[in-house]
């Protein structure tokens, strides 16, 4: 397929012919990536607060934009999670689900409510049933639902409806937010706590094992972490900037109806935009990583019962190569792809090693294609994370875990090729999936999207 040259550029191809070549490159560049062929490490179970995750492989959240207008899953959603469940990962981390109407990233984002939680129960039941059918009654993957408010990336009726806690120069400019655009009030943020609790209660009723209080990728709870200039109780000091996520976690932890939920968070540790716009960054001009505050927050969350954290970085709307290193995308980053993967793997490792009491889910593996399991095994062996997570791979190659655990391989003709077409679909039409490996469903959608672009351009 020929890619439209105006939007997509090649960032060089993944071209390691064998694992030796990859090893040589890692050594030559003196990277922190580790390799291991001891794949038994993936068979290790992880127990957190009585929840047993049956192996050390996870699927990362991948927003599919395929809900109906009320936020309920549709056939496309059920299909995706059935495939994922039949794939054999021990931890299935569901995609971003909105906690309120105005907080949706688009009109097709999942949104859990009092009226539709039974549809989410149907989804969770389907996941559990499909996994058991495939691997036997004794196999039960744990499910985490990702609760989110999209903040500056909210869209309602197809139009941007940014809800911002603070101005961020570079990010404002990128989506046309003017200097006088109003900030969300403290009262609005106070009221969000009840909405998160309500969403967590509904998630519990729907049968999910855990909830993720998402604070990454520039969405509302992520943005507040760097609200250095905001006045009032949610801005300024570290205590104020982290107050909202800590209050939400604490309230869910102590809520009777949420009892037994596995508490987790998907957390940015580095925004990769300069101070004072970014979190986890040095105050110098060159945007160095500074993990002091992220570590402090993780320790505080752990004290309040958050024992499972999925780490990530960056902002997919602004600098996507940081959180999903790619071979093809709409700009060419100023670093080799392997450096972007190395940053993720190494810094996740720094967190895991400093805070061993929390099980950390690692990221940065899909780009390694047919060698990704060796990289993941290397990370587990080295203690760089407790669980290896795959994002794009989970929609390209939904049974990757089965192939790793049962056959000791990842098949070349099934792996994600980091072409960014799923991301392009998400950005342009909301609905997305793997255009390359799930082409029967998603290639026609992708082609339609491209042809309507051509006609709009003409
Ligand atoms: C199309 C698409 C949708 C995504 N949706 C979510 C999401 O809902 N929540 C989230 O935390 N991350 C989301 N991500 C990020 C992935 O979970 C993951 O962090 C990223 O793809 C890097 O992992 P990988 O290299 O294994 O793909 C999404 C990524 C893509 C490409
Ligand atoms: S479209 Fe498929 S192959 Fe391309 S990046 Fe997305 S998941 Fe990977």
UniProtKB/TrEMBL annotation:
Molecular function via GO: FMN binding; oxidoreductase activity
Q: Which domain of life is it from?
A: Bacteria
Indicate the segments forming the NADH:flavin oxidoreductase/NADH oxidase N-terminal domain, all copies.
46-273
The record's section on Gene3D superfamilies has: Aldolase class I
For this UniProt record, give its keywords in alphabetical order, as a comma-separated list.
Flavoprotein, Oxidoreductase
Q: Which Pfam families match?
A: Oxidored_FMN
Q: SUPFAM superfamilies attached here?
A: FMN-linked oxidoreductases
Q: What is this protein called?
A: Flavin oxidoreductase/NADH oxidase
Organism of this sequence: Senegalia massiliensis
């Amino acid at each position: 397929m020929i890619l439209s040259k105006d939007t997509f550029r090649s960032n060089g191809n993944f071209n390691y012919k064998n694992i030796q070549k990859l090893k040589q490159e890692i050594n030559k560049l003196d990277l922190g990536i580790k390799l291991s062929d001891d794949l038994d490490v993936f068979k290790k179970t992880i127990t957190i607060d009585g929840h047993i995750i049956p192996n050390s492989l996870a699927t990362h959240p991948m927003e599919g934009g395929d809900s109906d207008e009320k936020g309920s899953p549709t056939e496309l959603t059920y299909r995706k999670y059935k495939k994922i469940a039949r794939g054999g990962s021990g931890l299935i981390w569901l995609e971003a689900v909105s906690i309120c109407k105005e907080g949706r990233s688009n009109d097709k984002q999942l949104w859990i409510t009092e009226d539709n939680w039974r549809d989410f129960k149907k989804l969770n039941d389907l996941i559990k049933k499909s996994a058991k059918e495939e691997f036997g009654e004794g196999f039960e993957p744990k499910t985490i639902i990702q609760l989110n408010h999209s903040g500056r990336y909210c869209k309602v009726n197809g139009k941007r409806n940014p809800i911002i806690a603070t101005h961020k120069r570079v990010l404002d400019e990128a989506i046309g937010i003017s200097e006088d655009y109003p900030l969300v009030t403290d009262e609005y943020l106070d009221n969000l706590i009840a909405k998160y609790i309500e969403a967590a209660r509904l998630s519990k009723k729907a049968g999910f094992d855990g909830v993720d209080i998402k604070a990454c990728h520039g969405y509302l709870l992520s943005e507040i972490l760097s609200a250095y200039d905001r006045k009032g109780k949610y801005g300024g000091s570290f205590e104020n900037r982290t107050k909202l996520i800590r209050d939400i976690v604490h309230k869910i932890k102590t809520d009777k109806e949420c009892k037994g939920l596995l508490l987790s968070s998907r957390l940015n540790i580095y925004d990769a935009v300069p101070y004072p716009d970014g979190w986890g960054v040095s105050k110098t001009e060159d945007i160095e990583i500074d993990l002091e505050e992220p570590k402090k927050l993780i320790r505080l969350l752990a004290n309040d019962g958050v024992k499972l954290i999925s780490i990530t970085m960056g902002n997919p709307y602004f600098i996507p190569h940081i959180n999903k290193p790619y071979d093809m995308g709409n700009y060419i980053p100023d670093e080799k792809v392997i450096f972007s993967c190395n940053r993720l793997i190494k810094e996740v490792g720094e967190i895991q090693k400093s805070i061993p009491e929390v099980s950390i889910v690692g990221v940065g593996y899909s780009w390694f294609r047919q060698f990704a399991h060796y990289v993941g095994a290397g990370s587990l062996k080295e203690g760089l994370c407790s669980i290896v997570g795959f994002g794009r791979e989970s929609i390209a190659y939904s049974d990757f875990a089965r192939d790793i655990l049962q056959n000791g391989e990842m098949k070349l003709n099934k792996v994600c090729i980091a072409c960014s077409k799923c991301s392009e679909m998400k950005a342009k039409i909301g609905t997305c999936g793997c255009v390359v490996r799930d082409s029967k469903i998603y290639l026609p959608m992708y082609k339609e999207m491209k042809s309507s672009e051509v006609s709009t351009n003409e």
